[in-house]
Amino acid sequence: MKNVLVIGSTGQIGSELTMKLRSLYKEGQIVAGYIPGAEPKGILLESGPSEIVNVTNGGQIKEVVAKYKIDTIYNLAALLSATAEKKPLLAWDIQMNGLINILEVAREYGCAVFTPSSIGSFGPNTPHDDTPQDTIQRPTSMYGVTKVATELLSDYYFHKYGVDTRSVRFPGLISYTTLPGGGTTDYAVEIYYAAVKGEEFVCPIAKGTYMDMMYMPDALKAAVDIMEADPTRLVHRNSFNIASMSFDPEGVYEAIKKEIPGVRMRYQVDPVRQAIADSWPNRMDDTCARNEWDWMPHYDLDSMTRDMIEHLREKLL
Ligand code: SER
After folding, report:
1. Cα 63 to ligand 1 centroid, rounded to whole Å
2. Which segments of the chain does DSSP mark as H helices, in order?
3. From the alpha carbon of 280, which atom of ligand 1 is closest?
4. How far apart are CA 120 and CA 143, in angstroms?
5. In b/e form, how buried is each residue of 152-169, taking b as 16+ CB within 10 angstroms?
6. Which of 28, 104, 106, 314 has a CA between 20 and 30 Å from the CA of residue 202?
């Protein structure tokens, strides 16, 4: 990796991944791709080049790839699960037409491509506990449909054209920098904001609903490590299960309570998000990622909670 284009650089993952890549690959150009209305600001804007890149515009992707001699594309443009249920056609357009535009440019210019998949690529008839790497994937949400199709299309471009596509299935991602929006796992971020601000948290996901979650530093490490992995060791490509912690709303509430005894939470279940959450795994088995590219997370629920609260206190108080 030398010259990298991050598409969706101002989003939840992109805003932090762009900065991490700029600190790791100083000799190259890390281009922050964004859409009008979501311009990079502050350090993200000042620390390197940025360009308008709308995934639905193949010509725009091609121009930027040629201009900066891009060798790796991180494709992070997506509508999350609850928003995709409200706007399924837009989700399809961004996630699928966007992806094929990127893959076509990658084929022409020899770029490697990372497009994340998700716990959302699984469905109600997937084994929910220790979900295997290779298993039934029949998701019922539009988000999930696009994620399975992303995995298949990415593997297709690898086998047919030799495009170096690789990715991971992200759990719900938790961070203090940029808020997610419209996701089923967003509650696990929002509860920290409410707790630090001293506000009651109204939880849209029911007690006892377990999902995989991950702290952003581990997710960023995975995104870099998979693209740096020795290709001769990779049996799989799109996409690897990665896991670090699994909890339900009570679990994260109890972890926060150890640090902020006055934290308050009540339930008001959102049926759309709950139905999506119920169809997703409780915990994925990530043995293949550990064996094929030495994946190893650093944070567990308690260490993440301490770090989140410390940073949110600096940010919000
Ligand atoms: N965090 C995503 C969502 O909740 C899942 O990948 O939609």
Report:
1. 31
2. 14-24, 42-46, 58-67, 81-86, 88-92, 98-109, 142-161, 187-197, 216-228, 249-259, 271-279, 287-293, 301-316
3. 5
4. 7
5. ebbbebbeeeebbbbbbb
6. 314
Question: How far is ligand 1, taken at its centre, from the CA of residue 277, in Å?
Answer: 9
Helix (H, G, I), strand (E, B) or coil at 287: helix
Ligand 1: residues with CB < 6 A are: 80-81, 118-120, 143, 170, 172, 183-185
Kindly report the protein residue whose alpha carbon is nearest to atom 6 of ligand 1: 118
* Stated pTM of the model: 0.97
> Radius of gyration (Cα) for the chain, nearest Å?
19
* 253 classed as catalytic: no
Catalytic residue among 34, 68, 74, 143: 143
In order along its 317 residues, the chain shows pLDDT tens digits of 899 999 999 999 999 999 999 999 998 999 999 999 999 999 999 999 999 999 999 999 999 999 999 999 999 999 999 999 999 999 999 999 999 999 999 999 999 999 999 999 999 999 999 999 999 999 999 999 999 999 999 999 999 999 999 999 999 999 999 998 899 999 999 999 999 999 999 999 999 999 999 999 999 999 999 999 999 999 999 999 999 999 999 999 999 999 999 999 999 999 999 999 999 999 999 999 999 999 999 999 999 999 999 999 999 99
**C-alpha angle 288-289-290 in degrees, rounded to nearest 5:** 90
Ligand 1 midpoint to CA 151 (Å): 16
